[in-house]
Amino acid sequence: MNKKLASEPTATMLPKMHPEAYPGLATDYGKEFAVEALKWRQANQPKQINNADLYAGSPMYYYCRVCGWLSDTKPEGWFLNPPAKLCRECSALKEEYGLPTPEGT
Ligand SMILES: [Zn+2]
Known about the structure:
Number of strands: 2
Bound molecules: zinc ion
Mean pLDDT: 87
Largest sheet: 2 strands, antiparallel
Low-confidence stretches: none
Order of helices and strands: HEEH
Strand order of the largest sheet: 1-2
Number of domains: 1
Helix content: 10-25%
Number of helices: 2
């Protein structure tokens, strides 16, 4: 899973809105970029892992309710604190400028 395939895009080949294509968070580059990056993430959502398909003991995956990208992973059976509802990008955007979409409020 962690092995990189030769065909896998490198950071420089990624669209500039891809979270891995820039250092830090999109909000570091201003509101306009952060909002564009959010739109890009919403339009290019990763395939989500269905926790029910994983073997017992696997960590649980949670996805951002605004953009659909991974927001959190938790070990199976966690109970202390709930998983993040927003990914790092969306929570930074919400904090800095407010989310442009109603579902994040
Ligand atoms: Zn998000």
